[in-house]
Structures are given as C-alpha cells and as structure tokens.
Amino acid sequence: MSQKLLRRSLLLAAPALAALAAPALAGPTPAGKDAYLYFITPHNGQKVRSPVLVIFGLRNMGVAPAGVKFPNTGHHHLFVDVTEPLDPNVPIPQDKKHLHFGAGQTQARIELPKGRHTLQLVLGDADHIPFDPPVVSKIIHITVI
Description:
This protein is an alpha+beta fold. It has one helix spanning about 5-25; strands at about 35-40, 45-50, 50-60, 60-65, 75-80, 100, 105-110, 115-125, 140-145. It has one helix and nine strands; from the N terminus they run H-E-E-E-E-E-E-E-E-E.
C-alpha cells in the first residue's frame, strides 16, 4: 500500500476511532446545578424499629435506573455505617454497607440490628460512579430499638 493511500485511510478512520474511545475518555458525570440529596425519613437522632423505612429526597436532579444515561439523572445508594471516605473516581461498591437502588427506587425498608447506625445517601450516575461534584446527603445518626 502506498504512503498516500495509507495516510488517506488513517485520516478517514480517525473520526470513527475517536468516537469509540470517547466513552473511555469522557470523565466524571457533571452534577446538576444546586443538586441537593437528603433524607425525608428517618430524621437525624431518631429512634426507629427494624425494618427501617428510608425515604430518599432529591432536588434539582432526577432519578433513573442504573444504565440510563440522561443529563442530570442518577440513582440512589445508601451507605450504612460506612467510615471510609468516598472515592469519586471509582464505581460505588455493592455490599452490606453500600446498598444500591439501581431500579430507580426512592425508598426502601432495610433490616438493621439494634443499636446506633449512620446513614448517608450518595447519588450515582448510570455506571454507579459519584457525580462531579459528588451529590451526597448529610450523614444522619439513628438508633434501632
């Protein structure tokens, strides 16, 4: 193949290759302006019985199932007794302390043992990665009696 033909082929292929690479290079998903994540219930300091009804509140963004890529939408994650800091560059783990609500749920009943617990909401994008800046609630403390 001549150099001229090779160069032309590369020039024609470049946009297609760039389009394929774009998702990998996209970076963090921007948060909605003035997004605010909070607990409707329970309230900080509240004494509750298990299973605990947790209702999630969100302003200035929408909720969609995981995998749905639509501007200013995400899905809820509930952190239970999590002490390590949030890493905004990796998907949110899924385990007993990091509960995923990837179907777009806005409330849940969770089983918790008796005692004091911390809860925090984190909004994840379609790929379970925190937004930029992270959209997180205040940490609340509850006591299961």
